[in-house]
Amino acid sequence: MLTILFDGVAYGMLLFVLAIGLCVTLGLMNFINLAHGAFAMAGGYLTIVMMNRYGVSFYWSLPAAFVFSAILGAVLEHTLYVHLYTKSHLDQVLFSIGLVFMATAIVDYFMGANQQTINLPSSLEGRVDFLGASIGVYRIFTIVLCGLLTIGLQFVLSKTRFGSRLRAAVDDGRVARGMGIDVTKIFALTFAVGSGLAGLGGALSTGIISMDPTFPLKYMIYFLIVISVGGATTITGPFFASLLLGVADVAGKYYMPAVGGFIIYTIMVAVLILRPQGLFTRASR
Amino acid sequence: MRKQILKGLAASAIALAALPALAQETVKIGLILPMTGQQASTGRQLEAGVKTYMAQHGAKVAGKTIEVIVKDDTGVADISKRLAQELVVNDKVSVLGGFGLTPIAMAVGPVATQAKVPAIIMTAATSVVVEQSPYFIRVGRTMPQMTFPIADWAAKNGVKTAVTLVSDYAPGIDGEKFFKQRFEEAGGKVLDTLRAPLASPDFAAFLQKAKDLKPDALFLFVPSGQGATLMKQVIDRDFAGSKIRVIATGDVTDDDLLNSMGDSVLGMVTSHDYSADHDSPENKAFVETFKKVNDNLRPNMMAIAAYDGMDVIYRALEATKGDANGQKLIEAMKGQKWMSPRGPMEIDATTREAIPPMYIRKVERKNGELYNVEFEAVGPVKDPTHK
Q: Which domains does chain B have, with CATH numbers?
């Protein structure tokens, strides 16, 4: 019972870290970036290459995946995405889905199409007993790391100067510019951090699932569910939505294996009918 | 200028006139493989198997030159059907082959029947496929052929209760059905049958459920290529510590992926017809050539099916003395027996189904690499579903 809860929370936390970057670009910057999963895949494959080819420790691979995806995000933002901020949503969707296909083809060419995994360091393997339930060490590691990240993000957004500037830039870009806030720079930095977090999420997920070139497409559905259930205007919304989906998915598959796979979709449909603005957002202004 | 055009025309006219004569000298084989997309590792192994056969036996048989045309269907059945039509109509192939998934073989069946072109099923493993066209020949294996031996082995080795966990698609459900049937006939009891969605990223819930049911053994089946993900989570859940034996068909411990799974799969018991470790002179030669022409790739069950598929075609052409007529070829393919790198192979003369030799294997470390080491030969297994 507790094991199921823990598995669900770990899965939800992982979803959150993977999806949070998309929430930021979609909710805060009003930009639809379906290629978000590609940044997660970049982080995942970097981890695989570093660990399997160069024998780098898993603990070093995680920050490396963050930095790599963040730089990749910054470069692409500066060269490609920046031209699309003012375009229509359809253009953004077409552009970013095109990027997904390109990323898939590139990874397929260089890394091959088969699933690739890593072998976790022995300190993260195995299981421990916690209140009578047996829990995987790696899942605890994921929960702690993602939990710290969430607290950190929430702190930065609500308590720091950067956070208030970002919120100002989002609420009214023109006025923010008029007040001397460099909106372009803030957006670029936010995009890079969002991509970096996706990369970190990708690296973390190589410990549980494996990477293959279709990763961005497979996970796009989950990201979009998280955002549609949680709403994209806050961080706490997607956070609780991820947890809810993670636990519902795992528990559903455990207690009702025959229909378990459909539970998260059912939740999404129910939420979209009852609260189309998202479960955890204020009613629309 | 005009002269040149005329000259060009004349040249192409001569070339055209020469074509029929040439066509009689070459026999074309059209392979429809998933070279990109999710099944790409299957396509790569199949193509590598064909290359290995050609490297060993050359491109000439019974006075004919063999030409292989590879088309990529990305694993999508609609495309496979169109490609099959193109290969038959435009390229005038004498034999079709490949087919990475059951639906693909199903889609190509009618084309083979209409065109009277033999079609070699190398991968698709659902029993019923081979009955879809009188021109189908299977050289791979079927789900019951893979699951019966491991069900028998489990029942004989102290496993009283089992839980099955399969991917929720046709071969997975076949595997579940045949394991349950055979295992319960032998006096065992299947406590629960779990089905994970084909694109399941996290098996956690299913595995925990299986563990909490406390069976003696957990039987697994996932499509080739997904074994690594599943095994990673199986190990993470520590079944060994709960005294639950993990058994599977050989797809899970795929030779192509086995090394990346790490030491934790050591000792896992599976049943299949091919292991790169199989101890025979034929297999040694096969593995050696395979690695040489394919950049040190290790052959898996897909590669051996493609290799045997080419063997069947070559043998049939020898029997017809180079006549590539579809009806004559298919007749020559039925009932063939030969020594394959996996052991003695046979094509059933009436059902056109492969009768591969099956083995029970255990994962062991050999020369620093992980291999499926065969420890019990089950012998040839006929598919029980064909009447």
A: 2-141+280-355 (3.40.50.2300), 144-272+358-380 (3.40.50.2300)
